[in-house]
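User: I'm writing a short report section on ligand binding and want a predicted complex to refer to. Could you take this sequence and protoporphyrin IX containing FE and write out the structure as tokens? A short remark afterwards would be nice.
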Amino acid sequence: MIKKTVAIALFLFFVTTTSVMTAGLVVREINKNNNSSTNQTTNTITSNQTLTTAELAKHNTSGNCWLLISNQMYNVTSYIRSHPGGSNEIIRFCGQDATSAFQTKGGQGNNHSNAAYSMLAPYIIGKLNKTITTQQLDTSITQTNTTPPPANNGEVEDDD
Ligand code: HEM
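Assistant: Sure. The structure tokens for the complex follow:
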């Protein structure tokens, strides 16, 4: 009789220990999966940025100046001080669609030169309504903020 009781007790002890350990492992696995899927969701939500006109409008100061020209978004912050037409000509369009302002030099009527058009390239952030990762955005902001104006800033050489 005692033998039988000991056997049952051992059996119960074994079953309980195994169940508790298995349950512990299962809970750990579930937590691990949950965490990684939470991280994935957070990443997808926080790491994408669409270049909307609403986003453009936030960059409307001389220290943080985006222009939209022909559906392309530019960060021209670092160029403002070198602009041959003066800083204010650009500053008043920061955060806006400056397509026609650029094509008419702010209403003067004449377009920018080809040299001026080719100077835009280093300041590109991306096309309007394009979705990029915040990492890509950070990289292009850093690049455009540290892009110096070209040595010959669109000025015509004097021969004398
Ligand atoms: C909406 C924004 C802009 C306005 C309203 C504007 C306006 C003007 C004006 C009024 C001039 C002087 C014209 C003259 O005295 O003959 C000028 C010249 C110039 N601007 Fe702008 N500008 C703008 C943006 C830019 C940007 C973003 C760049 C280059 C990245 C640029 C590059 C130049 C250059 C190189 C000149 C010398 C003349 C030429 O090559 O056409 N401008 N701009």
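A remark for your report: The radius of gyration is 31 Å. The pocket of protoporphyrin IX containing FE is lined by residues 67, 76, 79, 83-85, 89-90, 93, 98, 101-102, 105-106, 108, 112-113, 115-116, 119-120, 153-154 (CB under 6 Å).
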